[in-house]
Give the backbone structure.
Amino acid sequence: AQTVTQSQPEMSVQEAETVTLSCTYDTSESNYYLFWYKQPPSRQMILVIRQEAYKQQNATENRFSVNFQKAAKSFSLKISDSQLGDTAMYFCAFMGPYGGSQGNLIFGKGTKLSVKP
Amino acid sequence: DAGVTQSPTHLIKTRGQHVTLRCSPISGHKSVSWYQQVLGQGPQFIFQYYEKEERGRGNFPDRFSARQFPNYSSELNVNALLLGDSALYLCASSLTIQSGNTIYFGEGSWLTVV
């Protein structure tokens, strides 16, 4: 069974600085999808970034980028120029290669990020 | 365009009661999934429905059931509520059930069981 591990329960960063959130996963599949979701206090889960395992190039979305290390089964999120609005819980999630009943997300326990002024 | 909408946003139930949670997917999305998020944890998959058929089920007891209607909206039902069912219930939608589809979440329904 696939598992997702986020080893940092809480992190803090000063506004405008850079922070990296860690995520490791376990799977025997060679093709899969990885996601980072943000959950602010409003509780709505918002997609931050998406990575397809068969693509070697790391995904980027504005200030958000990932470091995808397939062999190490590592998928970290880097937030550059941190803003107060980045304060939230961040969840790493895995989706297997098959649709249907395997098309659901498996989440880690999350990392609570606080951006300080 | 409206996102995934859920109702009610908050509710309190007594142990042993029944609850129904409702979800409307993003327009054009045919797949709806339900997740349970206990405080301090990541969401856990409960059900996935596509074209009104159950396509996936997580490790939850039979007290949990769901259905999808012809307009692709969905209901999650929980019978014989336990204190441990207190959680945020998230509905999510996607275009299809093809793997890799981006999944969009609603704001959730907060259920408190007393």
